[in-house]
Structures are given as C-alpha cells and as structure tokens.
Amino acid sequence: MNRMSSAHPHPDWATLPNLITLLRLGFVVPIVILVLNHAQPVLTVVLLAVFGASDWIDGYLARALNQVSATGAVLDPVADRIGVAMIALALAVAGHLSLGVVLTIAAVDAALAVTYLVTRPARAPKVSRVGKVRTAVLMSGLALIGLSLVPALLPVGTAGRILCVIGAFLHAVAGFGYVRALLRDSHTDPPDM
Predict the structure, then answer these.
(1) Structural domains counted in the chain
(2) CATH code: domain of residue 65
(3) CA dist., res. 72 & res. 2, Å (int)
(4) Range(s) of the domain holding residue 32
(5) End-to-end Cα spacing for the chain
(6) Tens place of pLDDT for every residue, the chain, 193 residues?
C-alpha cells in the first residue's frame, strides 16, 4: 500500500508560514497602541522588528519547507498592507510620519482593492521586484522611526521618514503595476456568463 495515498493532506491554509503571517497581523494592534500612547519605546521597537522580520521569515520558510500556498499568496500581502497602513497611520497621528505617506499608501491600496474586486482574478498577481523592494524600504523606514521613539536614538527618525517617502513612491509604482496586471489578466479570461 502506498503510504502517500493514505496520508491526510493538510489544508492549503494550515502551514507554518501562514501561521507566522497571522502572528504578524497580531502584532499590529499592540504596536499601534504603544505608538499612540507614547509608551515603552523599546518594546515598540522590538515589536516593529519582529513585524518586519516575520515578513521575510514566512516567505523564506514557505519556499524552504515547500509550503507555498494559494492562501499564503493572498494572506501575506494583505497582512503586509494592513500592518504597514495601520502602523504608518499611528505614527502619523503621533506626529512621527507625514500624513502624505499614509494617504499615498491608502489610496494605492484602495485602488488595488477595488480593481481586485471588480476583476475577480483567478489568482493574486505575483509579487513584483518593485513590490518586494517597496516592502523592505517601508518596513525599514517604519523600524527606524520606531527606533527614534527611544530618546537617545531620535536622529534616526529622519532617515526613517525619508525611507517611508521613498517606500510610498515605490508603493505607488508597484500598485500601478499590479492594477495593470489585474486589468490585463481580466481581459484574457473569458467573461462569466
């Protein structure tokens, strides 16, 4: 008897990388609360670092453990977008980040969400190189701003804000590419009848 035929496959969503992605989302609320309350800057920095590192770790593990999944392909970028947007908004409300950065991120994400809902693609678009760089730049910028919450490290906040502006620009470039890909793919699929 073939052992593989009797094995119970795990559901697409039941993977270690997807668990890490969900945990990353779980860090967002405590980070936002800490930022808005100007409380425990060292803990805020640690949580921001874990938030950023977990994005790289879940992707690495998905590939290394052969656990790349359709659920993860959607969940990971959604977790990134929600996390980055909420943390950036909290930093803006607390006076550490330009509201323009937050509005750029929100506008691009809204355009992507509407396009995704209208086109209803069979699969999520693949993450582009610009999208990967954008995420790294934004997460690095947020981490540096987080570091600047520690009074002795205040000067690194400027570098963080510059990275966030660059990241917001790259977010717009990547978002435009994703919208184009979604629209292009919607024209190649037969319409629902």
Answers:
(1) 1
(2) 1.20.120
(3) 29
(4) 16-186
(5) 45
(6) 333 334 445 577 889 999 999 999 999 999 999 999 998 999 999 999 999 999 899 989 999 999 988 888 888 988 998 999 999 999 999 999 999 999 999 999 999 999 989 998 877 788 899 999 999 999 999 999 999 999 999 999 999 999 999 999 999 999 999 999 999 887 655 444 3
> Does residue 191 fall inside a structural domain?
no
Helices and strands per DSSP (H, E), number in the chain: 7, 0
> CB 188: neighbour CB atoms within 10 A?
6
- 148 is written with which tokens? 């600047």
The amino acid occupying position 51 is F
Token pair listed for 155: 């000067």
pTM (two decimals): 0.84
Of 178, 59, 179, 58, the closest CA to residue 126 belongs to 178
